[in-house]
Amino acid sequence: MDHFLYRDGQLFAEDVSVAEIAAAVGTPFYVYSTATLERHFKLFDEALDGVPHLVCFAMKSLSNQAVLKVLAAAGAGMDVVSGGEYYRAKAAGVAGDKIVFSGVGKTVDEMRMALTGGIRQFNVESEPEMEVLSAVAVALGVLAPITIRVNPDVDAKTHAKIATGKSENKFGIPISRARAVYKMAAELPGLKVIGIDVHIGSQLTDLAPFEAAYLKVADLVAVLRADGHAIERLDLGGGLGIPYARSNDAPPLPVDYGKMIKRTLGHLDCEIEIEPGRLISGNAGLMVSKVIYVKEGEDREFLIIDGAMNDLIRPAMYDAYHDIVPVVEPEVAAEPAKYDIVGPVCESGDTFAKAREMARVGAGDLVAFRSAGAYGAVMSSEYNSRPMIPEVLVHGDQFAVIRARPTYEEMIARDTIPEWLA
Ligand SMILES: *Cc1c(COP(=O)(O)O)cnc(C)c1O
Predict the structure, then answer these.
(1) Tens digits of per-residue pLDDT, 319-336?
(2) Of 187, 265, 337, 405, which sits most exposed with the smallest number of CB within 10 A?
(3) 63 lines ligand 1 (CB under 6 A)
(4) Which segments in the chain show pLDDT lower than 50?
(5) 51-81, pLDDT tens digit by residue?
(6) Phi/psi class of residue 99: alpha, beta or left (left: φ > 0; alpha: ψ in -120 to 50)?
(7) Looking at ligand 1, which atom is closest to the CA of residue 123?
(8) Looking at domain 4-31+282-412, which of 2.130.10.10, 3.40.50.1700, 2.40.30.40, 2.40.37.10 is its CATH number?
(9) Is 172 in the pocket of ligand 1 (CB under 6 A)?
(10) Which atom of ligand 1 is the closest one to the Cα of 61?
(11) What is the largest distance, in Å, between two alpha-carbon atoms of the chain?
C-alpha cells in the first residue's frame, strides 16, 4: 500500500496534487511520500517484534538526506556500502552504532572513516579484506566488530544482475569454507567476530530462497559456536521484492518474512538485523514526466516523454516493468491506447515500455511511473547533458524540494578548463 491515489480525478501524493507539484517544480521529477516510507519501515520493525533486532535501511536504494532523516527519526539503522553513504548516514544524524558497512571492496580510507566515526559492524566479504581491516584497526588502537558474509549458494530466482547468493557471484565467502575463514578472523588482532551476514539478492518474490539460505545459516551458527566463536548477531540482508505491476501476484509480506525468520533463526538467541532497501523506498516514490509528442510510427504509436533512461535506468538496465499512469484519472469506459513509451535520449535502449496499454494521453499531459522510489534517483545521471531531475518530499498537505534541479550553468560549472585551454 502507498499514498499515491486518485482523488476527484487527479493523482495525489498524500494530500498534495501531483499536477500542483509539477506546476511548481517542472518535469520530470521524483516525488516521495513520507507516510509510505514510515509505514514500510514500521512493517519490518513490527514483523520482528519479540526478537532483539535492528532494521537497517539499505540507503543505496534511495539516499536523499531528507529521506534518511525520515527513516532515522522512525528508528532505522542504516546499511551503507561506501564512504559517501557512511558520510550521508552520519550527516542525517544516525549514530555510528546503528550503521553497518557492507560491500565487497571497502578501501582503507573507508575503513578508517568508519572506525573513527563509529560503526556497528563491518560485513566482511574476503580474507584480504579481513587482513586490511585488522591492520587499520590495530593502527588506530581499536577492535573492528565484524560479521563475515557467507555465500550460501542458493538461487534467488531473480534478475541475473541482482542475484548475489550463487557461488558464481562475487559476494561473500563460500559457506563451505566458513570454518577456516572464521578461524583466520579470530586470530587477526584487530578483529572482533560477532556474527554472520548473508544477502542473496534483490527483488525476491518468494520466501523459499531466503528460507533455504537462513536454514544454512542456522546450521553454521551451531558449527561456529562449537568451534568457539561468539555468534551473537545475524545480519540477514535485504532483498524482499515489491509488486511492480498491480495486476501480478503480490510478493510475500514483511509480516510473513518476519515469521519465517523467527521460525528458522529465532531459537538461536541472536540479535537479528535486516537490510531492506527496495521494500521501504520503492513504492514510496513516483517519477513524474510530461508527454512531449505522440508520434505515429509505421506500425505503432510512440509516446515521447521528457523523462529518459538517464533519469530512471531500471527498464534499460534490468528489463524492469513500471506501471505508468496518467496523472488525470482516465474514464473507466475509455478505450485504451497502445504505446511504445520512450525518452528523448539518443539510444534505442531509452525505452520504458513496449506495446503498453494505457489510457490515451496527448502532448502536454503528465504521466507517473509508479514504484520508482528505489534505484531511481540514486542511479540517475546527466547523460545527454540532461540536468539531474529534482526530488520532492511530501508530508501530509506539504511538499518541499529536497534536491533542486541544477541550472545549465550549475551543471557545467563542475567541469574546469585547464590553464592551457583558457
Ligand atoms: C542491495 C543490498 C541490500 C538491499 O537490497 P533490496 O533489494 O533493496 O532490499 C541489502 N544488503 C546488501 C548487502 C545489498 O547489497
Answers:
(1) 999 999 999 999 888 889
(2) 187
(3) no
(4) none
(5) 999 999 999 999 999 999 999 999 999 999 9
(6) beta
(7) 13
(8) 2.40.37.10
(9) no
(10) 8
(11) 71
